[in-house]
Structures are given as structure tokens and as C-alpha cells.
Design goal:
single chain, alpha/beta, Arc Repressor Mutant, subunit A, Rossmann fold, 3 domains, 7-stranded mixed sheet, two-stranded antiparallel sheet, 11 helices, globular
Length: 276
């Protein structure tokens, strides 16, 4: 018997992207990564429980997320790995792939251009730009660094769908303005600064410092709880009930769910800049 995963409102079949919550979209990207690995390993069928564990989510949440895709899976059997991967790629707009231009040929920009994982996931780097005369004309992989002054003409000829900004903070807004003027509607910025863009342009921001601050908080919280546990153990030894009570109280206020990382927490609106 086929499981009928229906979209909210009882609409089955092709999912409407506008109806899918941003948090679900972020998790779909995670499921896609897991499915790609399974496909490479030759796995044909995966159960919802197995996929949920690999993606780090609950099986109920996974099934709800996949319900936005229309009918999927066979009860008691599982999901066809290839078909589900292709379905998610279609919903995420990856079926035809994306052409990417990157502005800023410094260390970060060069590292991103050299990362082979982008191409495997449907993102092809087609242009690299910089304003430094000593960098212009050099090669990074298969790309030659071009003068940022050529950006507008290059966007017309290269027809990119996504632009990436990896320039110093002081230059980020100017580069964003150039990209918007050239017609780009999807921009990913590695500058921590909030960039101004029209409502028709989607700007997402990756702030690595914020991610490390979240990790720092988790480390501090874990250390605090470990100290409380040690106090509990000491209290049990000497019969110090107040110490035990304090430690138990510390654990009681601990949040039930961990802090969401950027792939699940960013829910941008048009023209907004979102900090992971």
C-alpha cells in the first residue's frame, strides 16, 4: 500500500514552493545531502527512520517535511533513494543546476571556487572577479580572475543565477549594488554587515563568527552542567541535599532542543539579510 503524503490543505502531487516553510526547505537540503551519499553508496531504499537518524531529525518531522512533496514512499518498504533525491532537487530548483559568479578572489573566494562539492550539488562556478590589479588575470582552477569593472557585461554573457560576495566588509555594499544593477536577484554574502537591496532581491548572509559564538555558548553550557553533575555526586556522598537540589534545578532549566544552526534557523524574507 502506498503512503499518501499529502501537502497541507489536501493538495497532493507537485509541491508548491510558496507553500513550503523556510525551516522545512532547510531540512530538505539536509535530506538531499544524505540521499546523495546513499545513492553514491548504491543504497536503493531507505526507511523514514533511517533517513531521519542520518539527517539528525525526528522521524515524525521528516515525514511531515516530505508530505509537502506529494505522495512518496511505500508503507513497510521505505523511500526510493533516487526518486526522492530527484524529487527534492526539483522542489529546490536544482534540476537544471545553477551558474554562480563570485566577487572577491582572496583566500576565502579562492577556497570556495576550489571546492568540488558545489559542482556535485548542481552549482557551477562560471566567473570570478576582483579589483586588485595584482590578482586580475591570475587563474584559480579553471577560472581566470576578471576585473570587477567587467561585471555588468559578464552577467549578461555568463547568465549566472547566483552571486557570491567574499570581499572586505568596506566593499561589500558597493559590490552588492553592482550585482543588483547587473540584474542579479540571488546574492550570498560572507560579510557580517547588513546589505541594502531591493525587495525583489534575495540576500542571505553567512556570518562564521556567529556560528562560532553559538558553539562557544554550547561549550559554556555543557561545562556548567558538568559542574552541576559533579556537585550532585559530591552531595550524594556527604548527604548534602541542598547541593543536589541546586544541580537538579540547573538541569531543569536546560532547553529541550539544541540551538538551531544556520541550515535550519534562517528564514529570510524578500530583501532581508539574515544572520545564521
Amino acid at each position: 500500500m502506498t503512503e499518501q503524503h499529502e501537502t497541507p490543505g489536501g493538495v497532493s502531487g507537485r509541491a508548491l514552493q510558496k507553500d513550503i516553510p523556510q525551516a522545512t526547505v532547510a531540512r530538505l537540503a539536509t535530506y538531499l545531502r544524505v540521499l546523495a551519499v546513499l545513492a553514491d553508496e548504491g543504497t536503493a531504499i531507505v526507511s523514514s527512520e533511517e533517513l531521519a537518524v542520518a539527517a539528525g531529525v525526528g522521524s515524525a518531522k521528516l515525514r511531515k517535511d516530505l508530505s509537502f512533496l506529494g505522495p512518496n514512499g511505500v508503507r513497510g518498504v521505505g523511500y526510493d533513494v533516487i526518486k526522492l533525491r530527484d524529487r527534492i532537487e526539483d522542489v529546490l530548483g536544482l534540476s537544471e543546476g545553477h551558474r554562480v559568479v563570485l566577487v572577491g578572489a582572496g583566500n576565502l573566494g579562492r577556497a570556495l571556487v576550489g571546492y568540488g562539492g558545489f559542482r556535485r550539488r548542481g552549482f557551477c562556478m562560471v566567473g570570478l572577479f576582483d579589483s586588485d590589479p595584482q590578482v586580475i588575470g591570475t587563474s584559480v582552477g579553471d577560472l581566470r580572475v576578471r576585473d570587477v569593472a567587467e561585471l555588468t557585461d559578464a552577467v549578461r554573457t555568463l547568465e549566472p543565477t547566483i552571486a557570491v560576495i567574499t570581499v572586505p566588509d568596506a566593499a561589500a555594499q558597493g559590490v552588492c549594488d553592482l550585482l543588483v544593477a547587473a540584474g542579479m536577484q540571488s546574492i550570498l554574502s560572507f560579510s557580517p554587515l547588513a546589505l541594502d537591496a531591493p525587495a525583489t532581491v534575495e540576500v542571505r548572509r553567512v556570518d562564521l563568527a556567529v556560528e562560532m559564538q553559538l558553539l562557544s555558548f554550547e561549550l559554556a553550557r555543557s561545562a556548567e552542567l558538568e559542574a552541576a553533575d559533579r556537585e550532585v555526586a559530591a552531595g550524594e556522598t556527604v548527604g548534602a541535599d541542598p547541593v543536589r537540589a541546586a544541580a537538579e534545578a540547573a538541569r531543569a532549566v536546560r532547553p529541550v532542543t539544541p540551538i538551531q544552526t544556520s541550515h535550519a534557523a534562517m528564514e529570510p524574507t524578500k530583501g532581508s539579510v539574515v544572520t545564521p
